[in-house]
Design brief:
188 residues, alpha+beta, Nucleoside Triphosphate Pyrophosphohydrolase, 2 domains, five-stranded mixed beta sheet, three-stranded antiparallel beta sheet, 3 helices, globular
C-alpha cells in the first residue's frame, strides 16, 4: 500500500461537550475549526475498545455462537466478541470473552489485526485474535442480556458461508477474513 501521501492535520478542537453519558456509552460534541476559520461540529460516539476472537478447537473446528442482537432484533452466527474492561489488556479481554461466551480456553491467542468499525462517528477500535487449540474448561458465563448458544462448525462450511456473504455481523466477517488469510491458521 503506498504511503507517499502526506497525513492531514487534525481539526483544531475549540470545545468539547459531553452530551450523554452512561456505563455503556457516551456522546461528545466537539466544536472544530474548519479550513478558513469557520466553526463546525462533530459528534463522537464513545465506547470502550473491543476484541473479536476466531476460536479453533484442537480438532480443527471453529467455535461459533448463534446470538440474538436486540438493536436489529435478529439472531445470527457470530464469533465471540466483546468490550474490554477498564485496565484490561486486549489479550486478557480476548481470553475472558472466549471463556465467557464459549466455555473454552485457548492454547494460544495470536493478535491478527485492528480496525475501526465505525470510524466516521467513533474512535472505538476492535482487536482481532486467532485462538488456537481451544479446549472446554467450563460453562458459559453470560450477561443477563446475552442470548446465545455455542456450536462447533466445520471450517470449509464457514469459509463457504463467508464467501457467500452469509455473515451479517461485521466483526465476524472481517475477523474470519483475517484469520483465514493468516499464516497461523491451521491448514488441516
Amino acid at each position: 500500500m503506498p504511503h507517499d501521501l502526506p497525513k492531514f492535520e487534525p481539526f483544531r478542537v475549540t470545545k468539547t461537550e459531553r452530551v450523554y453519558d452512561s456505563p455503556w456509552c457516551a456522546l461528545d460534541r466537539d466544536e472544530i475549526e474548519l479550513p478558513g476559520g469557520e466553526l463546525g461540529e462533530y459528534h463522537i460516539f464513545r465506547i470502550p475498545d473491543a476484541v473479536a476472537i476466531v476460536p479453533v478447537t484442537s480438532q480443527g473446528e471453529l467455535l461459533m455462537i448463534w446470538q440474538h442482537r436486540h438493536p436489529h432484533g435478529k439472531t445470527h452466527w457470530e464469533i465471540p466478541a466483546g468490550r474490554t474492561d477498564p485496565n484490561e489488556s486486549m489479550l486478557e479481554a480476548a481470553a475472558r470473552e472466549l471463556e465467557e461466551e464459549t466455555g473454552h480456553r485457548a492454547g494460544r491467542l495470536i493478535p491478527l489485526a485492528n480496525f475501526y468499525p465505525v470510524n466516521g462517528i467513533s474512535d472505538h477500535q476492535a482487536h482481532i485474535f486467532l485462538a488456537l487449540d481451544c479446549e472446554p474448561v467450563g460453562e458459559l458465563n453470560l450477561d443477563k442480556s446475552e442470548r446465545l448458544v455455542t456450536r462447533k462448525r466445520d471450517v470449509s462450511e464457514v469459509k463457504s458461508a463467508l464467501a457467500n456473504g452469509e455473515f451479517e455481523d461485521g466483526f465476524t466477517a472481517l475477523a474470519l477474513f483475517y484469520a483465514f488469510a493468516s499464516n497461523e491458521f491451521p491448514t488441516s
